[in-house]
Structures are given as C-alpha cells and as structure tokens.
C-alpha cells in the first residue's frame, strides 16, 4: 500500500504515534509518505520505503497569520498525484483533518478519490476542538472522513459528547515497539551516574504544559523524598519549566532535580527509573505512562481520561484524583519503600505494557486500511 501520514512532527504523543506507525508500516513493506512542516523528531529509521515531503508556507504581507492549512492541503494534493497514494492517514483534527477534506475535494475534481483516515488524539477534541471558534470545522472534518479512530475509549466518549458525530468511531489504542525497549542489564544502565546507591530515581516526561500539572510533580517528589532518598529526572521542555525550577528552589530540592530537556532516547532514560509520575489534568490515553511501563517502571497517575485503560490500580501503579498530591505521594512511597514490592510492580508494569505491543495493535490499522480500499473497488 501507499500511505500518506500527516501529523505534528514534535515530541507530543500524536506525532510520536504517527511516526512510529509509519516506520512500522515501512518495515513491513508499505510505502509511507510523511507530509508535514519538518521532519518528525522520532523519524530515525532509514528505509527506501519512507519518504518525507516538507510543507512550506510562503510569507505574504496580507496575512497576519500564515495559512498553513492551505499550504498543507496543496502539498497533499501534489504528493497524492505524484506518487499515486491510496490512503491518507491524518493525526489530529485541527488542522489536519480539515486540510485533508479540502485536498480530497480538490482531488475529486481530477478523478482521484483518496481515502482519509482520521485519528483523534486528545487535545484536538477536549481542548481545541470544543472551542466555539473551531467546533463547527472539527465536527465537519470528522463526519467527512472515511474512517475515524480514537486512541482510547475515554476519548471516543468525549468526542461523541462534545460533537454531533454521525460517523462510527473505532478505538485503536496507542502502542509500543518493544524492539526499542530491549532488556537493559545493570551494567548498561549505570544508575550511579544519576543517583547514589541508596536513592530511588523518579521520572516525569512531558512537554511541561499546564495540562500536565508539572507543579504537582515537584510537590509529589518533595513529599516522597522526605521519606525515601530520591532523585527526580524531568524530561521535556515547555512553558512551565521556569516556574517549576523556582518551585524546586523554594522547596530546597533543586539539587535533587535533573532537567534533561527534550530527548529522542526516552527508552534509555527510563532504564534508570523506579517510579513514573503523571499527574495530568487529562490524558486521552497516556502514552508516556505506557512507555514507562514498557521500561519496567510503575506509574503514579491521575484517574482522568484514558489513563485507567493503561495504568491498573494496585497492579502497575496507582491512580488518584486530579490534584491529590498527598495520595499520589503516599502511593509512591508505598511502592518504593520495599524492594520486593517495587520489583513486583515493575514486572506487572512490563506485562501490562506488552498487551499494547505494536504486533497487537498494527493489525487493527491494517484492517482499517484494507476495509476502506476494498469498499471502494
């Protein structure tokens, strides 16, 4: 098959999933064409089956904001025509599903019927899409896609609640490529470079936006380290970084927090970790939690969105109400204070993550692709 993938090329979950999906499809012999404004950050797989087409937005003084949607839809038309794409898989409703619809209409004018699969990832629905300025366009784009999927049952329900949707929505969970999470032996994972022998290592990975509630991460860690000697690894960059640095300094724990910035090697960083914190306001699925679990790291998270579909209460970690940092700290201490208990949670986390292995999820996407192609012929 020849499949076009439109996504945000950033460290966010939707871009990561789209890129990993494209690489997996290419490894299985399909031709994959990424169409976006720069090379996706996770696109580290060289293959004759992977192609990247950059969307350029020309500067024009008439526009206060440059019209990316127009440039994207035009580039989609160009790539579909030039390479005879069969399927366009767009990740995120705004602006990708909208641009895909426009491209589909332009292509119909020249006798090409490109099939569009739209995958909804979360904030495109719960934050952006539900805004009055965007709601009509998002609703229209979803209803005019050939197939619509969401990454969790929770997000499917949110989409149906927030919009008047006439399309059937399939749930296809996010996934992990376990080839990128090999069993790391103790000599490879040199914990002594991060922490002392008696210290536990706690990790958080995100884009440090307000919805991630990173201030709660600092608060939870502060409470845990008073009982359990610990270090905190913060992976990612975002608007809340400066605030949480000040917070850590005021609490007197700045020397125990390592700010590591963005990384393409989260899987390697997680080998150090004993506990993962994800106190988000909402998570449509919780890919960061799944990545942690794939690296044998139990998770302390909120119970919002799709997180209960990933993190199992009392088995792979614990779930608490949003903002309940006392409960999250208490549960973290419970896991970390006993080495045997910690090892049991680690093993449980790995076993749960294996249910989301790419070999279990990819067939669902393949079934979607084959279904819409067979129906059109």
Topology diagram in text:
Blueprint: E1 2-6, H1 13-27, E2 31-36, E3 50-54, H2 68-83, E4 87-91, H3 93-108, E5 115-120, H4 123-129, H5 132-143, E6 147-150, H6 153-162, E7 169-171, E8 200-205, H7 214-225, E9 230-235, H8 241-250, E10 257-261, H9 266-269, E11 275-278, H10 287-294, E12 299-302, E13 317-320, H11 325-336, H12 339-354, H13 358-376
Parallel strand pairs: 1-2, 1-4, 2-3, 4-5, 5-6, 6-7, 8-9, 8-11, 9-10, 11-12, 12-13
Helix pairs in contact: 2-3, 3-5, 7-8, 7-11, 10-12
Summarize the structure.
The chain is α/β, with parallel strands linked by helices and 377 residues long. It has helices spanning 13-27, 68-83, 93-108, 123-129, 132-143, 153-162, 214-225, 241-250, 266-269, 287-294, 325-336, 339-354, 358-376, and strands at 2-6, 31-36, 50-54, 87-91, 115-120, 147-150, 169-171, 200-205, 230-235, 257-261, 275-278, 299-302, 317-320. It folds into two domains: 2-175 and 357-376, Rossmann fold (3-Layer(aba) Sandwich), CATH 3.40.50; 182-354, Glycogen Phosphorylase B (Rossmann fold).
């Amino acid at each position: 098959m020849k499949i076009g993938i439109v996504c945000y090329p950033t460290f966010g979950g939707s871009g990561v999933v789209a890129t990993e999906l494209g690489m997996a499809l290419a490894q299985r012999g399909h031709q994959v064409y990424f169409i976006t404004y720069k090379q996706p950050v996770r696109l580290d797989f060289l293959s004759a089956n992977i192609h990247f087409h950059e969307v350029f937005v020309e500067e024009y003084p008439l526009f206060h904001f440059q019209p990316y949607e127009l440039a994207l839809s035009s580039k989609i038309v160009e790539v579909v025509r030039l390479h005879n794409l069969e399927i366009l898989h767009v990740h995120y409703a705004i602006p990708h599903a909208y641009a895909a619809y426009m491209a589909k209409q332009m292509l119909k004018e020249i006798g090409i019927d490109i099939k569009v699969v739209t995958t909804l990832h979360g904030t495109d629905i719960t934050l952006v899409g539900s805004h009055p300025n965007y709601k009509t366009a998002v609703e229209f784009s979803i209803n005019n896609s050939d197939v619509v999927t969401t990454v969790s049952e929770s997000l499917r329900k949110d989409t149906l609640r927030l919009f008047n949707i006439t399309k059937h929505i399939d749930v296809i969970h996010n996934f992990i490529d376990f080839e990128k999470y090999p069993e790391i032996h103790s000599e490879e994972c040199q914990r002594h470079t991060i922490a002392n022998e008696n210290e536990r290592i706690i990790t958080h990975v995100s884009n440090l936006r307000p919805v991630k509630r990173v201030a709660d991460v600092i608060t939870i860690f502060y409470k845990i380290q008073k009982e359990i000697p610990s270090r905190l690894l913060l992976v990612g960059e975002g608007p809340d970084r400066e605030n949480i640095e000040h917070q850590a300094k005021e609490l007197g724990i700045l020397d125990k927090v390592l700010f590591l910035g963005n990384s393409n090697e989260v899987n390697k960083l997680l080998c150090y970790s004993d506990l993962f914190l994800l106190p988000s306001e909402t998570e449509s699925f919780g890919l960061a939690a799944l990545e942690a679990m794939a690296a044998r790291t139990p998770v302390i998270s909120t119970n919002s969105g799709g997180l209960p579909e990933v993190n199992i209460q009392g088995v792979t970690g614990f779930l608490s109400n949003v903002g309940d940092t006392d409960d999250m700290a208490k549960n973290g201490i419970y896991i970390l204070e006993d080495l045997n208990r910690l090892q049991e949670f680690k093993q449980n986390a790995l076993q749960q993550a294996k249910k989301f292995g790419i070999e279990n999820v990819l067939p669902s996407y393949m079934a979607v692709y084959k279904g819409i192609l067979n129906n059109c012929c």
